[in-house]
Write a structure and sequence with these properties.
The chain is mainly α and about 475 residues long. It folds into 2 domains: about 200 residues, no CATH class; about 260 residues, no CATH class. It is about 75% helix and about 0% strand. It contains 25 helices and 2 strands. It has a two-stranded antiparallel sheet. The chain is globular and about 70 Å long.
């Protein structure tokens, strides 16, 4: 029996049952595992929910071969994203060894001034997240320091955390190194560069609005001076004691940005960036090379060993400064394996729902009465937010709605980048606003600020889905499959 046949006479409850089961298991995972729930238990919940969906589908006549092919096809669509994630891990390792990431942080901290602290914190986190592709890494490193500085300056912790998260998620959303930025186009059926370019239509205005709000609040605040200089100096001394920090370190990231701007495919551009990072380390950081390599090796051998270590496994650097030591760690390709595992399990769940005809039944219910492009996009936005609330994971909030609405977008003649942008506008950025979502749990624990205390001040994260609706409502630059914008 075909998947389309299995939808006949299928009740909405039956179609939703695997989703309900998944939500229940994810809720239990958050209760028992907290922010660690995405490190294994959520993956198992996805596979168990996929088993339930597959069992129901086979009971209704769907052949296992159809389910297997759907899973294979779904994971195949994510192959490039998985390759890119592995390269991102390698890139982070070599760029850290080369001193590139420490240089970003070091120079970024120099611009801190009390009156523009919120504005500057947003910019610093945006730059770091754009460079690394990780909102969690940004919040978990420089974000912690910024909370301490801002608190000492007399600013409300909710506003401080809101500025940090707004900047971190802006960079995460637009960075070609981000896992969600690679996942959304893979699910929707477009390429990474097209996706990023199309996202700027909603993301840049949202970020400008956030910056203006933070600037206005900061200039009207009562922050005191005298703290940030000592902090920046202490961090700078620690980093300079380990790395040779100078503007020449930005050659590699500039080259990668130029390649991306010239529409070089993401994977080759990132791989070149990995090699340039290793070369930069060999040229500018010979002492670091010897530390990472370990053992009694000549410099040529040490360069090879250190580069391979940085690309593939965990590396850490000890400076004696607690913050610097926390910042100067990278997981290489090994550090990306958990994200890849989660993506494969999420894609499997979505594929089984699709093969069993459940996604089609759920989508039919969601799209009932929708006759316009705005109605379609608004339902997609609402569904992404709902999955962030109910499923407690941003990957699920991207993959499942992406699978559900892809056919509807195609039927409307819309190019797939409309869907990929909407998934990011609503799925990626709202996850951190939910107290029981893994992102909300993680960021609250990292920053020491309750989710509900910072959520009202994450301006970018609120404006982004609203901007997506505004653009759709006025019909601004909606791209169709014929290549035209209307």
């Amino acid at each position: 029996m075909k998947a389309s046949d299995s939808t006949k006479n299928m009740s909405l409850f039956v179609a939703l049952f695997p989703v309900i089961a998944l939500i229940a298991m994810l809720a239990e995972n958050v209760i028992w595992f907290g922010e660690d729930s995405s490190y294994g238990s959520n993956q198992m919940a996805l596979l168990m929910a996929a088993l339930i969906a597959g069992g129901i589908g086979m009971y209704r006549g769907v052949k296992w071969e159809a389910i297997r092919v759907a899973i294979s096809t779904s994971i195949g669509q994510a192959t490039e994203a998985i390759l890119i994630l592995l390269l991102i891990g390698a890139l982070a390792g070599t760029w850290l060894m080369a001193g590139i990431i420490p240089a970003f942080i070091h120079y970024g901290l120099q611009i801190l001034q009390p009156e523009i602290f919120l504005f500057a914190a947003t910019v610093i986190c945006a730059v770091l997240s754009l460079a690394t592709g990780s909102s969690w890494g940004t919040v978990g490193t420089v974000g912690i320091a910024l909370v301490g500085i801002g608190t000492a300056l007399g600013l409300d912790q909710g506003w401080i955390a809101g500025a940090i998260i707004s900047g971190a998620y802006f960079g995460d959303k637009l960075s070609p190194l981000s896992d969600t930025t690679n996942l959304a186009p893979a699910v929707a059926g477009t390429d990474l560069i097209t996706h990023i370019k199309y996202m700027t239509i909603t993301t840049i205005p949202s970020f400008i609005i956030a910056l203006l709000v933070f600037l206005f609040v900061g200039l009207g605040g009562n922050a005191t001076s005298g703290v940030e200089a000592g902090f920046a100096e202490g961090f700078g001394e620690a980093v300079n004691g380990m790395f040779n920090i100078h503007p020449g370190l930005f050659i590699a990231p500039t080259a990668v940005l130029v390649m991306i701007a010239k529409k070089v495919p993401a994977a080759p551009a990132l791989f070149i960036g990995v090699l340039l990072g290793a070369l930069t380390a060999v040229i500018f950081q010979p002492d670091v090379i010897m530390v990472v390599a370990g053992g009694d090796l000549n410099f040529a051998a040490a360069s090879y060993v250190a580069s391979m270590k940085a690309m593939s496994i965990d590396t850490a650097y000890v400076t004696g400064n607690a913050l610097a030591d926390q910042l100067l760690t990278a997981g290489g390709m090994k550090g990306m394996m958990n994200t890849i595992w989660l993506i494969i399990c999420a894609m499997t769940f979505g594929a089984v729902l699709q093969a069993a005809g459940m996604l089609k039944r759920i989508t039919a219910a969601l799209l009932a009465g929708v006759n316009s492009v705005f109605g379609l996009i608004s339902r997609t936005v609402g569904t992404c937010i709902a999955f962030n609330i109910l499923a407690s994971d941003q990957y699920i909030a991207i993959v499942v709605p992406g699978k559900m609405f892809s056919e509807a977008f195609e039927d409307k003649g819309l190019a797939p980048e409309n869907l990929s942008r909407t998934l990011e506008d609503a799925g990626t950025v709202t996850s951190v606003l939910i107290p029981w979502n893994t992102c909300g749990v993680a960021q609250s624990g990292i920053l020491g600020v309750a989710t509900l205390a910072y959520a009202p001040y994450c301006i970018f994260n609120w404006v982004s889905p609203i901007m997506s609706l505004v653009v759709a409502g006025v019909g601004y630059k909606l791209k169709y499959k014929d290549g035209k914008r209307r």
